[in-house]
Amino acid sequence: MLLAPSEWPPGGEVRLNGVVYRPVVLTARMLASPDDERWAPVWKAMRDLAAEYGDENVRLIVWFG
Known about the structure:
The protein is of the alpha+beta class. Helices cover about 30% and strands about 10% of the residues.
């Protein structure tokens, strides 16, 4: 039984058994906390690159295979 629509419209929600479910859009910050020491070298490299090339010219792409 499919409970969720294939695409969530803005402000969309699903009601099931008196409970309302709403989509949550995850951000990178939610998944990799800036306080997590394991990511500290990555954030430092990103800051250094942004200082040299500008914020809009730095992008982090992560691939999990």
